[in-house]
Write a structure and sequence with these properties.
single chain; alpha+beta; two-stranded antiparallel sheet; two-stranded antiparallel ribbon
Length: about 60
C-alpha cells in the first residue's frame, strides 16, 4: 500500500497524525509529512484511518 499527500491542500488540522502517528506527522508549519511512502502491512489500517479523517481530503491511499 502506498500513500500520497497533497501538501498544498493540507490545512494542518492534524487529525491524521492523531489517528496514525506511526504514519503521519506535522511539520513546523502544521503541514502533513508522510513517515512512509510504502506503508508496512501492520500499519495499513492506521494509514487508511488517517486518510479517512482528513477534512480536506489531502491524503490518498492506493493499493
Amino acid at each position: 500500500m502506498r500513500i500520497a499527500a497533497d501538501r498544498d491542500r493540507c490545512e494542518g488540522h492534524g487529525l491524521c497524525a492523531d489517528v496514525a502517528p506511526e504514519v503521519y506527522e506535522l511539520d513546523d508549519d502544521a503541514i502533513v509529512v508522510l513517515l512512509h511512502e510504502t506503508v508496512p502491512p501492520e500499519l495499513e489500517r492506521k494509514a487508511e484511518g488517517g486518510a479517512r479523517v482528513c477534512p480536506v481530503a489531502a491524503l490518498r491511499v492506493e493499493g
